[in-house]
Known about the structure:
Elements: E1 2-6, H1 8-14, E2 18-21, H2 26-37, H3 39-45, E3 49-52, E4 55-56, E5 68-72
Parallel strand pairs: 1-5
Antiparallel strand pairs: 1-2, 3-4, 3-5
Amino acid sequence: MAVLRLFASVRVAADTGKVHVPGSTVGEVLAAADEKFGEAFAGVATTCRVWLNGEAAMATDPVDDDDEVALLPPVSGG
Length: 78
């Protein structure tokens, strides 16, 4: 299982910052997280940038058990 790291609003929606999630691609990991955490999480997650081991990721990127997928919501401020 990959490690899913969550930050800011997506972390609040999941009520955790780190969780192990099954999946062989980034898209499968995200789908499993949506199922685990529900509709509110999924709504926030769709606004996030996705990173795989510190690099921008696509849904089709393969994921191994020791990989880290991170969700980073957009940031605003002034």
